[in-house]
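Protocol step 6 of 9: fold each sequence in the batch and record its structure tokens directly after the sequence line. For illustration, a two-sequence batch is reproduced in full.

Sequence one:
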Amino acid sequence: MRVLGINAIFHDPAAALVVDGEIVAAAEEERFTRRKHGKRPVPFSAWELPEQAARWCLQSAGIAPEELDAVAYSYDPALVQPDMAGLDERWEDLRTTYARRAPHFLATALPELDPAIVQFVPHHIAHAASAGLAAPFRDSAVLVADGRGEAASYLAGRYHDGELEVLASQELPHSLGLMYEEVTDHLGFLRSSDEYKVMALASYGRQPATEPALLPTLRELVYPTGDGGFVVRPIDWSELAKRRAPDEELQPEHVELAAAVQVRLEEVLLELAWWLHRRTGERRLAMAGGVALNCVANTRLAAQGPFEELWVQPAAGDAGTALGGALHLAQAFGEPITPMPGADLGRGFSDEELTRWLDDAHIRYERPPDIAAAAADALAADAIVAWFQGRSEFGPRALGHRSLLAHPGNARNLDRLNAVKGREQFRPVAPMVLAERAAELFDRGPLPSPYMLFVHDVAPRWRDRIPAVVHVDGTARIQTVDRDSEPLLARLLDRFAELTGLPTVVNTSLNTAGRPMVDDPRDALECFGSAPVDVLVLGPFLVRRCELTR
């Protein structure tokens, strides 16, 4: 059974391919077009079809469009309610019309595709499948929270033997995700894009044993209803803090607002999780939806919630619905679903292809006998290393395939990396650590944590030793590295520890501000040529800044 999944309705257009119940490829369109989140400076940009991502998924598996058995489109226009309060009806009509025509648009983009095999999968069902069916366990409770789907913003249920039972949902306009988007915009950041900045900023306004001053007000406006749903009343954000223009300096009131919204989000999610546990009795919880990318909230759920195990889809945002839609149809057709093997589901390049890119660019490069050791040596000498290896990651996190690496022992490296990336200095960077050594350095939070979706307290004895990765609240969003699945990264970490005594390195995404993560060799060379990076590692090859030209 060959099923292609497509997300193309809100943002983060993406494609995924499932063959005989196994995930074989998944990619976001932004990695091909270089338009972050699939956004264009024209109207209706949210409806961009993932044409290049879909073609690549099929080509990578040697499958022609006419050989597909089904295509899942992760939005069902039949579920849209035209009179939803608070939503622009004209915009909804246009979106619905576009979605209904999507099978024909796809057939144009992929010649020989039969539009009749395209099936609409409800948005939150696709999110739920991306978590519950892709998780490493068979049965679980499932929780989906995002900005919105066709007519709802939330789903709670359970998977048993591959079948989803929906236990609760929340109709629009009530939405935790839209609430967070609104405050993101009010604070001068880009909605549906910069929510993680609000999460990072919130840490500056949280004090031990002290609630944010605005929290009582938000509790009156945002609250669970006791039946698995919640209420988000209309909020005049200007009454809580002055609206900030993107180029204005952040003020204490902005930090306070970010902290209050973050805490209230955590509180509501925690109550919803307890309700879901009472209904299901499940030991495990799988999560998806854009809200599930909030690693601070995830950590509180893991620490204070009722579930023994929590798994979050690494592509929890809308891109992941392409994968979930494909998994949902594959399961419906009776295919046994194989759990997600990892996030490295995108493009990869052979050594021969990388050699051609380097030769065509007329760049002097070397091929060390052990590229991991060579990179570790450079890191120990305090170089910033652009690291490009294997298949690219599906989802927003760099997990050691398209990463910028640095020495965690130099506090200046946080500022250096933020300068390389052209981003705000209040934002943290993450540590990468071998799974077997993570508990030495990091307390609290689930271990292992391979997808960088939780925060952990940095052990007090380590905070002065790895200052570059310690956030203002003493936490770090870690990525644990498994020796069996990531042997090259493991060798790098081993060598770096030998040289420095530190079993961790800084890891952040390989990109600059406003640009998607690097995906192919051209992207890597362009980024290296334009940013103050000392070393580029491209597969087995190494390029030094001082040797850019022959």
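Sequence two, same batch, same settings:
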Amino acid sequence: MKTFFTNFLVYFLLLFAFSAETFAQNIGVNEEKYRLTIRKAKGKIILDGKIDEDDWQKAEVAGNFWQFFPFDSSRTSFKTEVRTVFDDNFLYIAAVCMQPNKYIVTSLRRDFARGTSDVFGINLDPFKDKLNGFNFAVSPYNVQREGLIFNGQELSIDWDNKWYSKVTNLEDRWIVEIALPFKTLRYKRNEDKNEWLINFVQNDLVKNEAGAWAPIPRIFPGAALAFSGTLVWEEPPPHQGANVSVIPYLLGSADKDFQQKTPANQRFNAGFDAKVAVTPSLNLDLTVNPDFAQVEVDRQVTNLSRFELFFPERRQFFLENSDLFGSFGLNNSNPFFSRRIGLARNPNTGFNEKVPILAGARLSGRINKDWRIGVLNMQTARQDNLSLPSTNFGMFALQRRVFARSNVAFFATNKEPFNLDKDTLKQAFNRVLGLEYNLASTNNRWAGKVFYHRSLSPENLANQYIAAGRIIYNKPTFGFTNRFENIGENYSADMGFVPRKGTLRNAGDLTFTYYPKGKIAKKINNYFLNPDYDVIYGIPQGRILDWDAGLFGGIQFQNSANLEFALVRFDYTYLFAPFDPSNTGGAQLPANTSYLYRSHRIGFNSNIRKPVFFNVFTRFGDYFNGRIFAVQSAINYRLQPYGIFAIDFNYNRIRLPAPYSNSDLLLIGPRVELAFSTKLFFTAIMQYNNQVNNVNFNARVQWRFKPVSDLFIVYTDNYYATEGIENGAAFRSFQPKNRALVFKLTYWLNI
């Protein structure tokens, strides 16, 4: 325990020392050097992709972009000119992109993935904290993508909101004109000095080149807010005024459960979400009887772990400012995981199912430049088939900026069931309190955090805590990470994601990167080596439970392909409970036995600019007391610009000595993602997974008839993958389990 507190103190002192450096560098180089003045339009701006109004011609121009891929020491080979103006309702941005009429575009579908299409993008940071902002991007086919930037450079594209754009395609260039409603943005209006941080980025996949107006080092993504320039308002942006949006929905569905042999069930439902701007920078989200039937199905994975797997949140209500609630802790010690609300695992199918949410409210955003706040309260209904009572979920988060980009944050969570008898109710609540310090240096080289969380329960047990730290250093040729974590054996976060308790953990890695010069640099962008280690010590067991160490490396090619490999990887596992490594329910390796095994890995991602592109990852070598050969792959065909035809493949061949089971685990998933226009989309996926004995088919049609207003038609079907006996009854391959058809209509109404 003494060693633990020593490590924790070292983390705290290191992070504080590096924060002191950021305090001395409060103003970034780009902010002073790259400044763009925005003026109010004197005439009307017509959004037509032509920018021929006088106000556009008189606007200040931002140009001469810098490369940040494949290099960061020269100007881009393409030329881009950007102009900005505003009126009482919109912030307008126009760009002339000197790119010949030959593009790479994945799809006409909104919210396309990063790095898959030619694009012009905008980063906005109205509060100049270099941590949180907005990203808006448009492809040459006028396909839109919006997202929220958090943690300084991470981008979530699941956020959805209203804005407008028009594109004109010419022989030697394309012109994009964008109108961002001030009601869509979150900002604070000052009467004297108004400056926002802004940057413009462009991706030319034909040349495989990315550039930005304010230069970004090539080791960072285009969303890195630390390197933004300044948008100088000649006069203050307007007051937003009343800003209330209501999004009602109507839903009709039919479903049948073949396993329970119940009659087909039809239901009709209605509810609504509402967005209320309490202030221009603080938003109240309300929901009554929400239904997320239109959300895309989770991609299945083969689970060879002894622990729970993490699946990302996809539901729109939980996404805005999600970092304010969900970024506490580390990836395996997160006290708030929004998928715990309204979703639960069905023991019959093995998949998550909806738990009805009666109502909820979420207040999130900024009090001012330095303070952010988040308050959430949700009430779910009783679900008898999953043995779940009606439950209240609550969270409070408060964040205070310190130094240049760092912050101190506090949170409290509460999960409390209802409709239980008095004796059970007294033992059912779960609460967690936590305090964190998060580091982000001005130059983006240092990042990290230290934190202490404590859970509260009626039993008032000892060791209900997590104390941990992480530090990250990143330069073009060298970087490292290190983390230390202590999770008490009685720590409990029912609203969080904490798959292991009662552990001490230390993990780290080094990254050495070499950028070649001369002729070879035309083919290869960089080589890298990445040795790492991870050690987990079990506190109740008083011994090391797991460790792994490996020497990883790779090559990044200039054409976007990359090769990655593990020259060698060692894994050590001590089983404190019986475990079947085949994960098929066969004979289990006994508890209190240990295994040291060696494997090798190699993976390749092909050139994504080609119509046919693929990735493949293989693993081979020892596995517990046997052998493993695994291959995971995805093959994609891009039918530009309409979409993707793909097939995902995952095969694990496990061979163990008698009496333990061999297994051949197969997961195969053909999928289609098509966009017939920028308003009509179709997705379908079929997943065959013999590990959980399930075949799933999901198809979704989406018609966006108005901005952020949609009609969804969703069909889903589940079947048995193999023959067998369940609950005393025989079943055969492809015998149906359940199916459902859903129609859902949503409409965004501004009041």
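Proceed to step 7 once all outputs are recorded. Observation for sequence two: The first strand starts at residue 35 and ends at 40.
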